[in-house]
Amino acid sequence: MRIKVLQAAYAYFKSGLESLDKSEKELFFSIEKTWELYLSLYLLLIDISRYAGKRIDLARSKLSPRHEDLNPNTRFIDNLLIRHLVEHEQLNNYLRKYKVSWVNNPELIRELYNQLIESDIYRHYMDEPEQTWRSDKKFTIQILDDFVLTSLSLDQVLEERSIYWNDDLEFAVRMTEKSLKKYSGPGGQPVPVFSLFKDEDDREFVKKLFRNIVLHHSEYEKLIDHHTRNWDVERIAFMDILIMELAIAEILENDSIPTRVTFNEYIEIAKFYSTEKSSNFINGILDNIIQQLRQENRIIKRGRGLIGES
Q: What is the 3-state secondary structure (H, E, C) of the chain?
């Protein structure tokens, strides 16, 4: 959510044209599209497995099938994690409700499958002496890491389907992997499928954070300028400034999130969106700003364990 707000704020300030209300609507639509991509990745795994099943059925139906056609290795199509996704009620409800489908991209499914079966990863998985839910989970996550995330064809399809997906694939893959890693085998809790927002507070957090950085941009910029007097401010990347402004906005305007949590979140974002030097720079400047805000008693946190946080 923080990354989406960062992207929306960057677009807002760089365009200089859009109204706050329009930008806010664009932000929420962008979040919904990223969530749709997250759901699409579950279905992509299912569709690749289904394609493998169809290939097996076609081989069995040959006029003169070979021994291996009649006795195929079905480990992949029997993958316990993917079968769990096929039967996942909540996931299937989401897929139907939001009309998520790869039906118009059969060539992509075929290409990913062919790349998969030609890989050492696939051969090793299929040749393992025993099939376990742990090995199935490991292999499923490897599909996302080594084939989905690196597929140029998938990049092209995503670009054609939605302008909002240009930079979202890695983020969506990591979200999907985070869910899949919680799979504890048949009979355990179902793989958690993240909802668009956890609750109304989550949605309000996004709205409030975006509005605060827009409405208090000048104030936060002056605060950053004060702590970068020995730097050539014009040479500081605008993205770095925005990351710091968002951190300040969250620290000052959200009284339920510990300051240290906010600080760590934005340092991680800086590592992804900035250079290593930038993230170290942001770390030092933010730390100094937080010290000043504490001295001025401007950081107010409420809730159990938050009052008087150090």
A: CHHHHHHHHHHHHHHCCCCHHHHHHHHHHHHHHHHHHHHHHHHHHHHHHHHHHHHHHHHHCCCCCCHHHHCCCCCCCCCHHHHHHHCCHHHHHHHHHCCCCCCCCHHHHHHHHHHHHCCHHHHHHHHCCCCCHHHHHHHHHHHHHHHHCCCHHHHHHHHHHCHHHCCCHHHHHHHHHHHHCCCCCCCCCCCCCCCCCCCHHHHHHHHHHHHHHHHCHHHHHHHHHHCCCCCCHHHCCHHHHHHHHHHHHHHHHCCCCCHHHHHHHHHHHHHHHCCHHHHHHHHHHHHHHHHHHHHCCCCCCCCCCCCCCC
Domain residues for the domain of 279 are: 216-295
CATH number for the domain spanning 286: value is 1.10.940.10
195 domain residue, yes or no: no
Which carries the bigger pLDDT value, residue 250 or residue 165? 250
The tens digit of pLDDT for each residue in 253-279 reads 988 899 999 999 999 888 888 777 778
Question: 163 with 279, same domain?
Answer: no
Q: Write the pLDDT tens digit of every residue in 154-205.
A: 999 999 998 888 788 998 999 999 999 999 999 888 999 998 888 888 999 9
